[in-house]
Amino acid sequence: MIDVKTVVQGQRTPRYAPLINDRAKTVLLYRCKYGYHQLQTLVVALMMTKLDYGSATLAGLPAVQLDRLQSVLNAAARLIYRRRKFDHVTPLLKELHWLRVPERITFRLAVLAC
After folding, report:
1. What is the rounded distance in angstroms from the CA atom of residue 71 to the CA atom of residue 94?
2. What's 97's DSSP letter?
3. Residues 6+ apart with CB under 8 A from 105
4. Reported pTM
């Protein structure tokens, strides 16, 4: 599992980065107990809301750090569908109707601007 503490390094470390990591561990504990819809609800409720909440602080991050956050999003999609590490994740993201991290940040900022 990817440690979110290493994802956002430097001067612009969001305060909630450890929370995403703790919540990812919580979701992993329930992986075997729940089905697809329950896992999707847990991931959206515990992880995606924190990612969306910090969109304004993530707007100017370098691509390297956004790629690391993208890997967390990819791991969440693989968790929901119970796929292996090297399976393609793009079809999973499309089926879940999730945007990639840079597009997600842009979308959230556009919604806030309206």
Report:
1. 15
2. T
3. 55, 58, 59, 66
4. 0.70
| Local structure of 84: helix, strand or coil | coil
The count of other CB atoms within 10 Å of the CB of residue 105 is 23
For residue 96, what are its two tokens? 């879940």
Show me where the domains of the chain are located. 24-113
Contact between 56 and 112 (Cβ < 8 Å): yes
DSSP state of 34: S
Per-residue pLDDT of the chain (114 residues; tens, 9 = 90+): 444 444 444 445 555 556 556 666 666 665 667 778 888 888 888 888 888 888 888 888 899 989 988 988 998 899 889 898 899 999 999 999 999 999 999 999 999 888
Tokens of 100: 């990639």
d(CA 97, CA 27): 20
The burial class, CB within 10 Å (0-12 / 13-18 / 19+), for 75 is buried
- Please state, in angstroms and rounded to a whole number, the distance separating the CA atoms of residues 97 and 86: 21
